[in-house]
Amino acid sequence: MNQVPVQGAQVVSRIAGLLRIVGRKPEGSPLVELVRDSGLTRPTVHRLLTSLAAEGLLDHDPQNGNWVLGPEALLMGSVAAARFPLEDLARPSLRRLAEETGESAFFSIRRGAETVCLLREEGSFPVRSFVLHEGVRFPLGVASAGTAIMAFLPEAEQEQILGDWAGHAGKYSNGHPEDVVRDNLRQTRRRGYSVNPGLVLEGSWGMGAAVFDQAGRPSWALSLTGIEPRFRGDRRELLGRLLLEEAHRLTVRLGSGSQRRRQN
């Protein structure tokens, strides 16, 4: 028998959804965007935003009208960062990738059916792609990090996502047709790293490699982004090799860190 979600659980889900939308961009989001992306009515969104602001989880910027994350969110994030010291572990890999390639390097984490960009390290090449920044979310299978992670999920899990690809990919489905995504997943499994040939934004290319947890599941990804001329021909092989080397190194480091935390 199907259970009807209790009212409290529905409210929590709505609040979490709004916080995720606000947290996508450092500058926050205006009310109209929150209403559109949440699928909730304007009065409901406004009521929840006001309540979250009263608790310090959100702030309302009086200059541009955007809703942004508040001080309580910062405190919670600081506590979580102490428990999951991902920046300490991942930052050295990002710096090496950025220094060796000149491209911008990123560390993303899988959250359910999405990837979330956690860290960015700027490269030295003066022309950059700004598709990715901290807090940006993409559906699995979209962008290089999401493709790298999805390619190494169990086949049944992949097919579950692909079975409703248009609904899963949402606004990215037009640029990521199912047949193209399936081919990208096959190529990623064969090479070990993913290539996104400007599917999110024309002219902005990306490459990614999955980072695995102790159970052997792809839980994170390292990626590089830049303009198309920087990702041509033989250079892709070099970038792919560097990504795989750092992904392996980070897989080992994250596994060792988890083991040390359990022992403590």
UniProtKB/TrEMBL annotation:
Segments forming domain HTH iclR-type: 9-71
IclR-ED domain residues: 72-256
A biological process from GO: negative regulation of DNA-templated transcription
Pfam families: HTH_IclR, IclR_C
Keyword check for Chloroplast: no
Superkingdom of this protein's organism: Bacteria
Family matches, as InterPro entries: GAF-like_dom_sf, HTH_MetabolicPath_Reg, Tscrpt_reg_IclR_C, Tscrpt_reg_IclR_N, WH-like_DNA-bd_sf, WH_DNA-bd_sf
SMART domains to which the protein is assigned, alphabetical: HTH_ICLR (SM00346)
Gene Ontology MF term list: DNA binding; DNA-binding transcription factor activity
Keyword Cytoplasm among record annotations: no
Protein name according to UniProt: Putative IclR family transcriptional regulator
Keywords: DNA-binding, Transcription, Transcription regulation
